[in-house]
Amino acid sequence: MKLKGKVVTEVFGEGSKSEHQAVYLDTGDKKYRLKRKGGNPFYDEALYNLVGKTIAAEGNLTAHFFEITQNPDELKPKSKK
Amino acid sequence: MPISKVIISSKKNLQSKYGKQFKAVDQLLSAIVSSDKKRNVVTTVIYVDDPVSSKKAGIKAVSSLTRQAAKTAVDDIYKKLKPVYITLFGSQDIFPFQDIQNPANDDDDTVPSDLPYACDNPYSNKISSFTGPTRVVGRIPDIPGKADIGYLKNVVDAIVKNKQVKSEKLMNYFAVTADVWKKSTMQSLSNMFGNSVNLKDCPPDVSPFTASDLKKLTHFYNCHGSPTDSKFYGQKGNNFPTAQHAPDLNGKISKGTIVAAECCYGAEVFDPASEGTNNLSIASTYLKYKAVAFLGSSTVAYGPSSGNGLADLITQYFIRNIINGSSTGSALLEARQKFLSVNGPTLDPYELKTLAQFYLLGDPSMWVASYDKSKTISETAENRRLNFYNKGINLASSIAPSQRIDMEKQKGKKPVTDQMKKILAKSGFKGELKENLYQVKLKNKRIEAFAKGMGGAESIMYRTFIKMRKKANGFSTFEVLVFKESGKEILGWRLYHRR
What we know:
By secondary structure, chain A is mainly beta.
């Protein structure tokens, strides 16, 4: 499936043993916690590089994540030449 | 001889999942029964949704295995047979976890739990019903969503061939901590083993670890964990390297290994098809390679800011009890009872979540540490059971769980006192804070009267403040400050956070 939205960071697991600044895709209706399929759920630099950008990403929705199946580099908006 | 162990499962769900291989599953359960007989444990297998099996056990067969029906069936079996050990057979797609409403204010809606099966109170989804565990319960999981008879053969083989070892062998441990929690983990290890010399610190230490490290019989993790993930993670700053990866355990685990993991989602068992790399969970992998006990959490877990508390305590009590000669299931029951005794009589929402979320994967009747009976105090199994039961009943009648109350209703009624403001300031709690209030209803009227006498007309309450701290590198840490109050008096406060 494909989801479009703005990449933002938000807290996950406040005060817990898994608390961290997680990356989310804010579609306007809902925020989906992002992870690359098989990627590190706590810190993925490639996903952090997308923060603040609006993307349309292919992936799978799981109980806890929207798992991106695309290479994050392909998701960066192209600059106008 | 009376039945001392029951293996409880669902025939319909096993048949539906394993098809023609159900017979092989049934034979594996018979192998456990035969093996138990040789060690004087009288075991029976009960399929709660099979009329013949249920009738034989003296209970009414379940037509649809809802959570409520599963809990009621276990209760009926316990009342009828009074078994020493209750073994639930199968993962959540065979025999359900009980879903407890999450008492803490976090991202988990519910807490999958086996705690209700260990308690006498009837079905409920509220943790307040289950603060008096009396029963020895564990679960032999298969792989959710996958009918892998080979996996089950390995798990059962570890059970039927289990050999007790001297306690000293269990004192030689393998432990991994996220670097940020190193001090707390060192304290845990010191409490369990008297030293922390074997501790792996992640980073710099990362998976894969050597066969020499992993062959040790006792394993302990204090790392990050994530849902449906075959890895545990360390942490130093923004670096979250792999502290353990399920495939890295392949062929390196000793038979009879015992494991305790404090990590969030540490004991989660999931369908490998739903994991990004198609791997089993770490807990499932340990059992595949013939570990006999894995204690861990189903959901997001907690620890205090310094020292030991919550997840640290229940895991270290469990390991200590096994080393001291308890069966794996008794080790958990004793750990739960001690956790309640130490933290009670009132429990804050994070203590309640900890109680609910830790469960035992593995047959609860496994005795791992051998002991020379002639050198110990003479005590029958019946006397131990009586003591467990007494303790559980006493805890149920005295433990007072906190329950969240609507802040809107409390606004203006319970202002933040000056003393509280000072503590908040001292702890660096400034700016935007998320506040929650929890009420405790003490069960003993004399204690309630005593508490009221200390603080005025009101009974005991917990007030939690959640604070995000921004760090210069753009990352944030989150802390929870919990106040215990009686009227206008602060009875104590604790700081929990990422350690």
